[in-house]
Amino acid sequence: MSVSNRRERGGVPSLSLREPFEQPSSIGAWLHSRRAAWAFMSPAVLLITLFFFIPVIVLLVLSLSDLKSANFGTFQWWLPTNWSLDNYSKIIGDRFISKFLGNTLFYVLTTLAIFNFGSALLIALITTHINRRAGFFFRLLWLLPRLTPSVVYILMWRRIAARAPHGILNQFLTLAGLGGGDNLLQTMPWVFVIIVNGLIGASFGLVIFTSAIEAIPRDYLTASKVDGASTLQTIRHVIVPMIRWPILFVLTFQTLSLLTSFEQILLLTGGGPGLFRTEVWALRAYHLALSTESGNTQWGYGAAWAVILVIIGVAAATIYMRVFKFDELVEEPKIDLI
Amino acid sequence: MKVELENLTKRWGKFVGADGINLAIGDGEFVAFLGPSGCGKTTTLLMVAGIYKPSEGTIRFDGKVVNTVSPKDRNIGMVFQSYALYPHMTVYQNISYPLKLRKMPKRERRERAQDVADMMGIGDLMDRKPAMLSGGQQQRVALGRSLVKEPQLLLFDEPLSNLDARLRLSMRGEIKRLQMELGITSIYVTHDQVEAMTMADRIAVMKDGKLEAYAKPDELYDRPRTLFVAGFVGNPPMNFLKVEVTREDGEYRARAEGIDLLVPAERGEKAVIKGEVIMGIRPEDVSIADGGTQGEIYVVEPLGRDDLVDVRIGDIEIHVLANPTLGTKMGERTSLKFDTKEVQFFDPETEQSLIWN
């Protein structure tokens, strides 16, 4: 049955997603003609609208207002007359802004480079090049931090870092005559923040990279070896280029998740020691908007911090897609909706 | 380069992939490893390539044991069924990859790759990615990549199996010609006996990890040493029937129910000792003609030049290549003439040939 045939019958809906030449007479007809497409898309559209777009809009509106626990119930934050960019100019004027920005950049880049991406790729490569069973066992070990409940996991690390004579690390350090036995979370908080987050984060990339590497047909690896490549050259010239898509995915996903993650830092150092030593952007937003420590939760002001984080995240994702030529990685759909 | 395999064995736990393979390949020779899937031919090839380490036995290149030499130091070229072209590299990058790994200067790399590409008839496709090429073009690129470093040994792992029938035929000829002109020792793994017969100087027939036979194509065809080889080599395959061979009045006769054939004395005398044997006769040695053995036509399969006719004589099934002009019809009665000059006899227990062993 041809397209023109279908149109003559009038009532028979065309289900095609790609018929740009067919001009619908009205929006109703257009919707009708794309019934199947909408039926398939609607659950996702609904979820994204409900749990992403609406909250983002609410967040945006909140960030323009001065809603806080002090004026809650009386302040009409949804009225445009109460909106201004004051929160944003306040953030720009914050004398610690470079500290938060620097902390965030340092935290995200270091954790990503060393653990969430670096270790994940390295361990995936190692465990796919050794005995299968040993590789599996080794990968399982790396999943343990993720399987452990956060609070238990952080308590464990606090015990490890605690000061002498209780701290596990300090017991060894004092035996070796190193360090003053101080709480290591006080003396080297960043080392612990990065290790604690990294050990959890690495397993994500590890699982994805492992399956991607194992999915590479054996022939490519055989061909590369026969062509004269060493194992390292095969990894560089064949394996890594062939897992470019998972690499992009892990980098993007982990950057965003690190940008927005703060719970481990909150539990481990609370942003300290001292004034904001390990306070990252997301933790700052949390402290302002949701924590009652200061006695006054500033929802509006905190929301403005969060909005900036969303903007940074979107920018980072866009840069990754440009660098990795996302368009070239995406294949044409294999199934056509008729 | 000469290649010798001695007692070559590969085991994974209890599973035996290749079992005590012994064979020698002469310098410049083209040898096919032929067998059904799972027979160990690719396992053996990958041991020669250095991808698998042998569990036992030795591999020698020109007399030198290479068991522990890594693939990159063996100077071999390999062509795969899947072509295995690196999808992120252009044709030029694919072909010149082995040269790049040798740290050859860029200009020389360019020239060598272009020469090989021109030889393969893909010189104008250098900037394309593999995904933009047809199957035949991809296989030419793969061949080019295997040849560019001037290997001393070429390994083919079912290189034509992914091509369509027509292309397979022309590539078959081209590879054979190329191998002859370059004189590079080659091992060609295939499950297609026609490919093996038409291309190889010698064929190693493998079954269940073991080497069943290693001989020239015509020898495998005319003097099969085992029932398996007789059945695997030749298309359409040889007919097998259980017969009793007896000697009467100085003549040798092979009999089964409804069949009574006179067989040549020099072949019959080898079978008569055993009595009950398996007789093998090729479809081209049986013809439809009056005054022979009576049977019924069960199926006729037109092949173009011939008809492949399945004739039933009681329980016995005989395939015959018949002239299509005979107009054979399914269900009709017919009569078969057997030309027993090339008849084969096998021991039913050991499945070894009674004539050639």
Overview of the molecule:
The complex is a heterodimer of chains A (338) and B (357). With 338 residues, chain A is mainly α. Chain A has a domain at 100-280: MetI-like fold (Orthogonal Bundle). In chain A, 69% of the residues lie in helices and 0% in strands. In chain A, helix 5 (97-129) runs antiparallel to helix 6 (132-147) and helix 5 runs antiparallel to helix 13 (244-260). The longest helix of chain A is centred in the middle third of the chain and has 33 residues, at 97-129. Chain A is flat, with a radius of gyration of 26 Å. Chain A starts with a helix and ends in a 9-residue tail after the last helix. The model of chain A is unreliable at 1-19 (pLDDT under 50). Chain B is of the alpha+beta class. Chain B has 2 domains: 3-232, P-loop containing nucleotide triphosphate hydrolases (Rossmann fold); 239-346, OB fold (Dihydrolipoamide Acetyltransferase, E2P). In chain B, the strands form 4 sheets. Chain B has a 6-stranded mixed sheet, with helices on both faces. Chain B has a 5-stranded antiparallel sheet with strand order 13-12-11-14-19. Chain B has a 4-stranded antiparallel sheet with strand order 2-1-4-5, covered by helices on one side. In chain B, helix 2 (91-101) crosses helix 3 and helix 3 packs across helix 4. Chain B is elongated and about 80 Å long. Classes of the chains: A mainly alpha (338), B alpha+beta (357). The interface between A and B is medium-sized, with 18 and 25 residues.
